[in-house]
Amino acid sequence: MGYEWQFAIILEYWPIFARGAITTLQITLLSSAIGLFIGLLVGVSRESSGIFIRSVTSIYVEMIRATPALVQIVWLYYCFPIIFGYQLSAMTSIIIALGIHSGAYVSEIVRAGINAVDTGQFLAAKSIGMNHFTALRRIILPQAGQKMIPPLINEFANLMKLTTLGSMIAVYELLQESNNLIATTYRPLEVYTFLAIFFFIITYPWIWLSQRLERRLKMRA
């Protein structure tokens, strides 16, 4: 017996998806801002001449990249209050956790962008009396920034998909709202199919833009 699809149910409950989409966007934007701040700071610090700074930032990057984002979210939500005696809300937990998670990957993007600039630029800056960080700020980072844009856009798209992990701690983003809707309508195929299509619609344009910018930069090189 064939399954009878009833996508009209989605139109009836569209405010639920809209509410989930707004929450997803909030998480993505705020965690991206945190990730960009951390990533820029750590990426620049990993190019420092100080062994201690390089070691600390390298440990952070490797620890974050070697553990799943879901484990990081769950740890911050459940373990943080036990250790420090302060309970973060579910929304705050996922924003901070994804920001820290993204920061490790953004730092590698920043580091790769810095290393892509000709080392002669550093030598020229130092020859006119600039210190390491002044040369980075005034000469290296402005040039590296163009090369960072495509992978940063791609990281933004990946972060948007990671927001679905918020359903594990009852953050009412798109996946959690979809699960609640399924409990009401008993139409999982329609809801999950629409959810997959919706995520494709909001995520693929960023991936496409990243690919276009990357090709354009290669043509200019």
Description:
The protein is mainly alpha-helical and 221 residues long. It has one domain: MetI-like (MetI-like fold, Orthogonal Bundle). The chain has nine helices and no strands. It has helices at residues 8-12, 14-45, 51-65, 69-84, 90-116, 119-127, 132-162, 174-185, 188-220. Helix 2 packs across helix 5, helix 2 packs antiparallel against helix 8 (174-185) and helix 3 crosses helix 5 (90-116).
Write the H/E string, N to C: HHHHHHHHH
- How widely separated are the two ends? 58 Å
Let me know the largest β-sheet.
none
Number of helices: 9
Transmembrane segments: 20-44, 84-106, 191-209
Main location: membrane
GO molecular function, one term: transmembrane transporter activity
Domain ABC transmembrane type-1: 21-210
Describe the structure concisely.
It holds the Pfam family BPD_transp_1. This protein has 221 residues and is an all-alpha fold.
